[in-house]
Amino acid sequence: MTDVRDGTASVGMRDGTASVGMRDDMLAGTAYGDMAALFDAMPVDPRFVARRDHVEQAIRNQRGRRAALAVLATFMAVLVGLVAASGLFAARVIEVRGARNATADEVRRAAGVHGAPSMLRLDTAAVARRVEREPWVADAEVSVSWPNTLVIHITEWEPIAYVPDRGHFALLASNGRVLDNVVRRPTGLMKVVGASVVPRPGGTLAAGTAVDIGSRLTAQMRRQVIALDLAGGGVALRLANGIAIRLGDTTAITAKVGAALGVLAVDQPGRRYIDVSVPSAPVSG
Hints:
Blueprint lengths: L1 E4 L2 E4 L8 H8 L8 H6 L4 H41 L6 E5 L6 H8 L12 H8 L5 E9 L3 E8 L4 E5 L2 E5 L5 E5 L7 E4 L19 H4 L2 H4 L2 E5 L5 E5 L4 E5 L4 H12 L8 E3 L7 E2 L1
Parallel strand pairs: 3-5, 6-9, 9-10, 12-13
Antiparallel strand pairs: 1-2, 4-5, 6-7, 7-8, 10-11, 11-12, 13-14
Helix pairs in contact: 4-5
């Protein structure tokens, strides 16, 4: 666009920059004052103009895509909210798999899923953590089966020992967790003695990690053991012949059992105990 005022020509720029007349005024009196005419004579490369137009169009396109994505995200959030509120994917069925000692109803109660909530919003990890508080449950996996079924798959503890408890017998897992109380003495499980307090099912016996020793004994030693003694601040194995194998802590069980078997192989009348808390230097008496 050309504008003539008082005989002075100026050219308006598309991008709103200063006119030619203003440019000449700005350069007047400087070392570049005589370059104004040179600037006017310089042709603009069409490729530069095309490139500038291309960049501007790309910027407009990017802004448009961002706006469209924002609108789409808002729409999807509203849609999910409407679907969740509609009950279309409500957890109406809770299927329990893997339960043998724990009942399916006990697992469902432990899951704490009430009122058919939407599976789109359900925190399955939180459900699994609640189920794992059930005494028999060692591990729980929770998944959804669309449209309306929640699947809880559990892995149960295996009892490996028991402890007498006020006329009953508490079944113990390898980590000392109390799984259940039964009225009949279990067979095929190691007896634990010396426990000062036996918690309710779901609780863990003090020094209960020592119960795992039973699964680490050799077959030869296991045949001789009648009880695991947790009294006295250490761990001991009580054998059928009345000898106590003092293990100390629960480390290096293989070495300690090997040392005890070596001492047992040597006949010593009147022996009452073998101390293998230091397996390289066993002591007996």
